[in-house]
Amino acid sequence: MISLNRSSFLNKTGISGFRSPSSGAALRRRPASVRVVALGTNGRAGERNAAVLVENRLKEMREGSSAIADVESKPTVGGEVQDEYGHDASTEEEFVTPWCLSVASGYSLLRDPHHNKGLAFNEKERDAHFLRGLLPPTVASHELQVKKMMHNIRQYQLPLQKYMAMMDLQERNERLFYKLLIENVEELLPIVYTPTVGEACQKYGSIFMRPQGLFISLKEKGKIREVLRNWPEKNIQVIVVTDGERILGLGDLGCQGMGIPVGKLSLYTALGGVRPSSCLPITIDVGTNNETLLNDEFYIGLRQRRATGQEYAELLDEFMTAVKQNYGEKVLIQFEDFANHNAFDLLAKYGTTHLVFNDDIQGTASVVLAGLVAAQNLVGGTLADHRFLFLGAGEAGTGIAELIALEISKQTNAPLEETRKKIWLVDSKGLIVSSRKESLQHFKKPWAHEHEPINELVDAIKAIKPTVLIGTSGVGRTFTKEVVEAMASINEKPIILALSNPTSQSECTAKEAYTWSQGRAIFASGSPFPPVEYEGKLFVPGQANNAYIFPGLGLGLIMSGAIRVHDDMLLAASEALAEQVSEENFAKGLIFPPFTNIRKISAHIAAKVAAKAYELGLATRLPQPKDLVTHAESCMYSPVYRSYR
């Protein structure tokens, strides 16, 4: 890598009119930030080559030419750096410098995952960028590289080995990683996310090789803004953050929860087309109450019990303030796998001041609602005709329940308080009823209806007579044969959703649901299950995976410049997903579309979400595009290789 100091850079390129950023004075003339890839050698010759290339590039930018490939520039409007959606990246005071220059050549280029192409570098590129001898003589196409990687990954017997191979590829060749994931999404989604990511988080300390995001611990209190500035990318549009206290159904994994933000953001790019350089995974480390981890010599986090109360609140508040100061009003912050006692409070506290979204509360709710809306094509009627019973009353269960109640209220014009009465929840102490109200957590109180106490799930089914049974308990095998048979005795086509992740925590398997209901259940789960044959008929279980919703939702928020997330956007996302289920899917018993078309699905979701943002007056990127679906597709990142000169 070659860097030029400021005076050397200005002298060699002939750029004038700067004032020092440290003086606080505005720049009279600010060229776009320039990153030049793959030219030069070490020493003075390298500096001269770099300076000539930058000078040529600046000339081309002035003349509207683009002869030099892979020179990334950030346009400026009114003196402020803009991303492609027009977002103000920073104020004048926050700028460290108005220009940057880095030149990667040869060996360093091959170790830059953003620009490395491996054997796909052609003969001219190898000569121009000092790659001769650093690669074998064969030139391989992007497609052949994908074929080779899939062949290699399929050789591994264990899912965790496949996960590690994918993470290693992401750190070596970013575009190949995303092309591989996009083209093999149904096969690789369970590897890079649930269920395999759960095991990866459990063993994260042992398999940790390279940092893939920011770790912000209690040690960084008082200087979080400085820590954020350590991240190399400055134009961040999406942050996924966790404190690791409730990872999937696996409990407190502390700092090792980082696998979740990394996995989620991979899906933001692969499924929603959000540029990888604009995604930032973050783990907030306040300790862990997991004794096994505290005693594990390979644990990578703080070795102390979790901070709570004021200490926790102050750290989170500093973090949220720093994010807004560094990245602006329109950066999306997705809360992920926070424990119930923090998740609801954080969403309520920052929902009115930041663009925030809790995937466990809102994303799960949106995807499940979409499945229920689609299921009406199989059972007939409307949502208002159903009675719902949940096993699990945490953030997922209550979040789904609230969105169902909102949708029924919207369809029937009935008050929300009335539509909630169609929904019943069972927690670890039994059916939630009004006589328990004083002892309930605040997020459970809206679901405390008049009824005598019931302790067992199967007894609640017999009393409530639900048409839909939803599991969000995080406890495996709780939908027993007796439970499923009770649902089947009440309903011709019982809707049974076993949503807990990973697979080991699923309330029942697809095979159990179809067999115990005598092939009549409409089934979907949180983790994937293979097709099931019952009495000569093949049943294909659906997967109520949040990956259907959050990538498209995020893209819609970004492309509209939304400043807040509104419940109507979640309803719009649900309706858009339900519309993508075809008659062919219904014929197989599916209530979700296949993941093979996920980028098309995400574009439709993004368009509906953006349209709702414009309708609600929450969009800032004006004017509104005429065709939002086409605009969404045009905004999507595509992992094609660039040609270098």
Automatic annotation (TrEMBL):
<dbReference type="GO" id="GO:0004473">
    <property type="term" value="F:malate dehydrogenase (decarboxylating) (NADP+) activity"/>
</dbReference>
<feature type="binding site">
    <location>
        <position position="545"/>
    </location>
    <ligand>
        <name>(S)-malate</name>
    </ligand>
</feature>
<dbReference type="GO" id="GO:0051287">
    <property type="term" value="F:NAD binding"/>
</dbReference>
<dbReference type="InterPro" id="IPR036291">
    <property type="entry name" value="NAD(P)-bd_dom_sf"/>
</dbReference>
<dbReference type="InterPro" id="IPR012301">
    <property type="entry name" value="Malic_N_dom"/>
</dbReference>
<dbReference type="GO" id="GO:0006108">
    <property type="term" value="P:malate metabolic process"/>
</dbReference>
<feature type="binding site">
    <location>
        <position position="336"/>
    </location>
    <ligand>
        <name>a divalent metal cation</name>
    </ligand>
</feature>
<feature type="binding site">
    <location>
        <position position="337"/>
    </location>
    <ligand>
        <name>a divalent metal cation</name>
    </ligand>
</feature>
<protein>
    <recommendedName>
        <fullName>Malic enzyme</fullName>
    </recommendedName>
</protein>
<keyword id="KW-0560">Oxidoreductase</keyword>
<dbReference type="InterPro" id="IPR012302">
    <property type="entry name" value="Malic_NAD-bd"/>
</dbReference>
<dbReference type="GO" id="GO:0046872">
    <property type="term" value="F:metal ion binding"/>
</dbReference>
<comment type="similarity">
    <text>Belongs to the malic enzymes family.</text>
</comment>
<feature type="binding site">
    <location>
        <position position="246"/>
    </location>
    <ligand>
        <name>(S)-malate</name>
    </ligand>
</feature>
<dbReference type="InterPro" id="IPR015884">
    <property type="entry name" value="Malic_enzyme_CS"/>
</dbReference>
<dbReference type="InterPro" id="IPR037062">
    <property type="entry name" value="Malic_N_dom_sf"/>
</dbReference>
<feature type="active site" description="Proton donor">
    <location>
        <position position="193"/>
    </location>
</feature>
<feature type="binding site">
    <location>
        <position position="501"/>
    </location>
    <ligand>
        <name>(S)-malate</name>
    </ligand>
</feature>
<dbReference type="InterPro" id="IPR001891">
    <property type="entry name" value="Malic_OxRdtase"/>
</dbReference>
<dbReference type="InterPro" id="IPR046346">
    <property type="entry name" value="Aminoacid_DH-like_N_sf"/>
</dbReference>
<dbReference type="Pfam" id="PF00390">
    <property type="entry name" value="malic"/>
</dbReference>
<feature type="binding site">
    <location>
        <position position="360"/>
    </location>
    <ligand>
        <name>a divalent metal cation</name>
    </ligand>
</feature>
<feature type="domain" description="Malic enzyme N-terminal">
    <location>
        <begin position="170"/>
        <end position="351"/>
    </location>
</feature>
<keyword id="KW-0521">NADP</keyword>
<keyword id="KW-0479">Metal-binding</keyword>
<feature type="domain" description="Malic enzyme NAD-binding">
    <location>
        <begin position="361"/>
        <end position="614"/>
    </location>
</feature>
<feature type="active site" description="Proton acceptor">
    <location>
        <position position="264"/>
    </location>
</feature>
<dbReference type="Pfam" id="PF03949">
    <property type="entry name" value="Malic_M"/>
</dbReference>
